Amino acid sequence: MARKWYDDDELDILINRNRDKVLDAVETYLDNATDFCRCRDCRLDLAAITLNRAPVRHFVSEYHMKYYGEEDEAPLDKRMSRLVNEAAAIVARRPHHD
Q1: Burial of 43 (C-beta count, 10 Å sphere; 0-12/13-18/19+)
Q2: Which of 33, 38, 67, 74 has the most C-beta neighbours closer than 10 Å?
Q3: Across the strands, what pairs with 85?
Q4: In the chain, domain spans
């Protein structure tokens, strides 16, 4: 087997900046939505679909995240909210629970 170019613990410092943004947007959606199923499968599907549609922004440290991040977070927050709403419609049409 080929030697890996990294140590497993090194990958822990890779940060997907938008992951937390997506999870916050999903939480806000669930706090406000009245007709969305709250079962584990639907909540996780909502998060997974949104994460798959969100742009990935990886950084190696908090310093880089702040230095290269957007100055105005509002457009990104609105985009994440829109992506969550789109994902919720998909999950509602085809839920994966019994």
Answers
A1: middle
A2: 33
A3: none
A4: 12-93
User: Are 46 and 87 contacting, i.e. CB atoms less than 8 angstroms apart?
Assistant: yes
How many Cα atoms sit within 13 Å of 29 on the Cβ side? 27
- Say what the pTM is: 0.79
**CA dist 2 → 10, 30, 36, 41, 91 (Å):** 18, 44, 47, 37, 40
**For the segment 49-96, what is each residue's pLDDT rounded down to a tens digit?**
999 999 888 888 766 666 665 556 678 889 999 999 999 999 999 988
Name residue 22's amino acid: V
One-letter amino acid at 82 equals R
Which tens digits make up the pLDDT trace of 7-38?
Answer: 878 777 888 888 989 999 999 999 999 999 99
